[in-house]
Amino acid sequence: MTIPYFHHETRETLKQKASQGFVAVIPLAATEQHGPHLPVYTDTLICDHIAANACVKASTSVNLLVAPTLTIGCSQHHLSYGGTLSFSSSTYLHMLQEIGESLIAGGFRRILFLNGHGGNEPLMHQAAQDLAVNHKIWTASASYWSLCRAELTDLQASEMGMVPGHAGGFETSLIAALAPQLVRWDQIRDSHPKREWINAGPPGTFVGRHGLLTGDDGYTDTALTADAAKGELYLQAMIDAAARWLVQVCQWMNTEEEFER
Ligand SMILES: [Zn+2]
After folding, report:
1. Rounded to the nearest whole angstrom, what is the distance from the C-alpha of residue 51 to the centroid of ligand 1?
2. What does the alpha-carbon distance between residue 261 and residue 259 come to, in Å, rounded to a whole number?
3. Which region is the signal sequence (predicted)?
4. Residues 159-211: pLDDT tens digits?
5. Cα-to-centroid distance, 137 and ligand 1 (Å)
6. C-alpha–C-alpha distance, residues 53 and 37, integer Å
7. Is 153 helix (H, G, I), strand (E, B) or coil?
8. Structural domains for the chain
């Protein structure tokens, strides 16, 4: 299994692949507090794993390269808990735009963001839009959990907790599968209720409440029922869904038509 890493290429091979229409995939993750029991690198471990494996699968059908995962994101709403490295929203937006422009300077015309942290999502979509407005290129962007709703429903993942939630049963199951030595099982409390109301409100409405954007204790639901075997099933379903999405979007972005205006 060879992961088609952008950063394993040389400037010469990258120039060649850019001219051949290869799609540059940029995984977006975070380093932020994940409750008392999960490592602060949780989103990066998950996103890196999904992006690398999905790109391996997709690369049998489409030409793509996966760039280094951005391990720090926009996590301002976690700073008060400690254990968080974060860019402000304006800095993060500029950073994504400038990474895109670096790829454009290197000849790439198809840029795709694959995200693994909620706080990055609106800024990622904005950066993808700005890049396509300002340059004659294709862009696309999505968060991994939005690509696999049906598969996770089939696996009844919501019984584990909020999907994806934050440091609850779902994410803890994923880390239990990926890096079990990093789960502090003795730190999981049994009294944490589900916080289904987080970000809930009238349809289409964002509801912000100071100090409660990630739940009372900085996580969304209890991880008591977390399970490594189920985490492995979720991961595989998410990799398969992300790979299908990559193929679909890369083929769509590869339709040869002239850019107007
Ligand atoms: Zn997370």
Report:
1. 15
2. 7
3. none
4. 898 899 899 999 999 999 999 999 999 999 876 655 555 556 788 888 777 77
5. 31
6. 26
7. helix
8. 6-150+242-253 (3.40.50.10310)
